[in-house]
Amino acid sequence: MLVSILIVLLILVVILLAVIRQKDFVIENVPKLTVTSPAFEANGTIPVEYTGNGKDISPELHLSELDERAVSLAIIMDDIDHPLAGVYNHWLIWNLPVRDTIPAEIPQGEQVAALNNAVQGMGYGKHRYRGPKPPFGRHRYKYHVFVLDKTLALPASSRKKELLTAMEGNILQYGHLVGEYGK
């Protein structure tokens, strides 16, 4: 009897996880932005330096053909292969100044003075870049970059959902870079 109850509970947990698993979002009908990095190639391996097993620093990102109407930039970095969550957010930063190179090693904190007080939201429960560090296997990590037509009035306590909502209707361009990391 106890085994039957445990099996039913396990099935219910699996169904619940399948329902609440986050999916990677899709940005459609927006001009493409090319995102590259000198640290790793698209779909290549993210060097240890940029992971939780290394220095845990953000990689440099290069952006091509920025829209001349751009006012600010935003970045979301997600683990898109998380075994339980589906997609797990690691980093949020917005109100970055418009530039074709996002520097590496963006310092932690709610605001980044060196980047015109860009705001880091609550990704991975922290106001900072939190690099890849999967518990097992290889995971893909997606660096989403948004070119916006305004700055965003969001508090640093904001999470990914609030950032995506605030950007709606204000995205001039979108691009991403995917890298892998794991054992």
Automatic annotation (TrEMBL):
It comes from Enterococcus avium (Streptococcus avium). NCBIfam families: YbhB/YbcL family Raf kinase inhibitor-like protein. InterPro entries: PEBP, PEBP-like_sf, YbhB_YbcL/LppC-like. Coiled coil: none annotated. This is YbhB/YbcL family Raf kinase inhibitor-like protein. The lineage of its organism: Bacteria, Bacillati, Bacillota, Bacilli, Lactobacillales.
